[in-house]
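Hi there, hope your week has been kind to you so far. Thanks so much in advance, here it is.
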Amino acid sequence: MFDPESDGIGAIKGGCPRCLELQAIFESHQHTLRLMRAFAPIQTQHAGSSDPSPDRQQDLFASVHSLESRRP
């Protein structure tokens, strides 16, 4: 089985059309990733901020629990 990332174009034997297309797709994908990373580099966290950000996720069941506790 041909893997363009690990095998490279040198592993294509006899000009296999499917392998050549797979290699072209892989190269296009790698080029697209390089362009995306050049345009908007991956953001990393700052080393100085050790405090985790506050949890902004709302608790869906907090209101249900508080209503159940009010029942007689």
About this structure: Residues 15-42 form one domain. The chain has a mean pLDDT of 78. The CA atoms of residues 31 and 69 lie 58 Å apart. Residues 17-39 form the longest helix (23 residues).
